[in-house]
Design a protein that fits this description.
The protein is of the alpha/beta class. It has 18 helices and 14 strands. The protein binds nicotinamide-adenine-dinucleotide (NAD) and uridine-5'-diphosphate-glucuronic acid. The site of nicotinamide-adenine-dinucleotide has 26 residues, from helix 5. Residues 133, 162-166, 221, 224, 228, 262-264, 266, 269-274, 335-336 line the site of uridine-5'-diphosphate-glucuronic acid (UGA).
Amino acid sequence: MKINKICCIGAGYVGGPTMAIIAKKNPNIQVTIVDINEARIAAWNNSDVSKLPIYEPGLAEIVKETRGKNLFFSTEIDKAIDESEMIFISVNTPTKTYGIGKGMAADLKYVELCARNIAKVAKSDKIVVEKSTLPVRTAQAIKSILKNIGSDVNFNILSNPEFLAEGTAVQDLLTPDRVLIGGESDEAIDCLANIYGSWVSEDKILRTNVWSSELSKLTANAFLAQRVSSINAISELCEHTEADVNEVAKAIGMDSRIGSKFLQASVGFGGSCFQKDILNLVYIARTYGLNEVADYWEQVIILNDHQKRRFSDRLIKTLYNTVSGKKIAMLGWAFKKDTNDTRESAAIYVADHLLNEQAEVVVYDPKVSKEKIQLDLNYLNTRTQEENEQLLKSSDSPYQALKDSHAVAIMTEWDEFKTLDWNKIYNDMKKPAFIFDGRNILNKADMNKIGFEYYAIGK
Ligand code: NAD
Ligand code: UGA
């Protein structure tokens, strides 16, 4: 089948960047990204590319280059499905918040709605690509829906999980470690492999069966998150033994069998996927009665929750066991640098804990809006919206956020935090002035020299 037109359902953190790169590298293919969220599509179509709904370094330039040529953003979902030979499903698959599997299983209602829509609209053969992260054996369900609702149309289902990380999405997409395609039909796999083949070498395009592909995505995220929890577990031990977690990470990372990446101790991992995907893995393992397997992976989440909690506990304990009425400045709200995404950010949980202790929290983040910060907090349902607005403020300036504060908590490793005028900040803060560096981005000796009491992770 010759692919002239592609449709991607879901204009989010994956759909947007992934399709922008596919469009850039395949100028002869028309790529249309559709979404039910009209505001999001309008933002993708904003003539001012600095206002795209997603902040990703390098993305705005690529959208500017391709939009209106062979990349389109639209809410006309049925039309785009009808016209395309290949349809990517790139909708959200959050953890279920109701019913069976609540708090553990992936909620597949959005994926199912897409499948039903494709089945309803399609009048010609289609290749349907699972781009969303899905539980192993989901393709079976999609196949069953497409087969039973669709007319005489032939559907081929491929699993093509995405491995990009936010903040480096463009680079990750341009030079992927591998592209994974799982499927039953060699012809359909070739169609998708050819699209990637425009810029990815053949040896990096892996072909597997559908189930291996689906499970590999969950497994990759579980392994990555496990490394962060492993080094964070050691960070707590370091704090009790005068070992330095950065030195330990370097020493073990130089062992080529271990490798140096993903060993940065932190206040805990966040992001929309690590927790969700591990919970899903745990749920699947339990469904098969594999309790030891489930318990093993669940521990990665338990340790991460512990790491977030002990960060705020340590702050409170160090501030003479009370933060009530004290101003605590938080630098960063995003779950990592170079993104405006805040889903599951450690900052949300640390702030919530501090607010429970009646602290007055002021947040500065270069890319996250005041409204988003309040929404994140309200989502926890710990207190009323009014109470949250009263207790937690945001500031457009780091210096304003830090003025007269008792302590600063560094939650995100934004580069700009390293080069702030820490002398000025010290002078403007209450004394003793405390820094709790949840990302280990500052130098302890430098901060001590200025006069700060400085606490890092695992030191
Ligand atoms: P997202 O929430 O940013 O975007 C999903 C979009 O899908 C939303 O804009 C939503 O309005 C839209 N949508 C939902 N149902 C729809 C429907 N029926 N029709 C049309 N549009 C619909 O999510 P995301 O971060 O892009 O993640 C998407 C998937 O990719 C998830 O399964 C996630 O696990 C996976 N993934 C995410 C990342 C990441 O870095 N965010 C990386 C790899 C994989
Ligand atoms: C992660 C994976 O890295 C991607 O491969 C995957 O595609 C994606 O999840 C997904 O499926 O959504 P992402 O969550 O965007 O990407 O970002 P990461 O760089 O993996 O960071 C996740 C969290 O771990 C962040 O909070 C980060 O600060 C933290 N982290 C990461 C550490 O605390 N230490 C580290 O050494 C690395």
